[in-house]
Amino acid sequence: MKQKKIPMRKCILSQEMKPKKEMIRVVRSKEGEMAVDPTGKANGRGAYVSKDLEIVEAARKKKRLEQFFDSNTDDMAPIYDEVIRLIYREKIPKR
């Protein structure tokens, strides 16, 4: 049987290639609104972030998402918080 191709994406924070399912997508719409896109299907300019707390915290200090999207610091604080919340939510085992 033919093996299914696994889509790979590059993390904008760590520059590592990983399977798409191991990443979280951050998207900017045409209107300039920033959002976290857990489904990976929202319209707009997207970037992928690794599901690694250390990488996200280091990126927050270096303002990596702001640089990538040419955005304001005030706009990105909730985005970092949402990414961290999604990472924690996946780590907690479902009952």
From TrEMBL:
Database matches in PANTHER family: BLL0784 PROTEIN, YLXR DOMAIN-CONTAINING PROTEIN
Annotated InterPro entries: YlxR, YlxR-like_sf, YlxR_dom
Protein name: YlxR family protein
Domain YlxR: from-to ranges: 9-83
Short name of any one Pfam family annotated for the protein: YlxR
Top-level division of the source organism's lineage: Bacteria
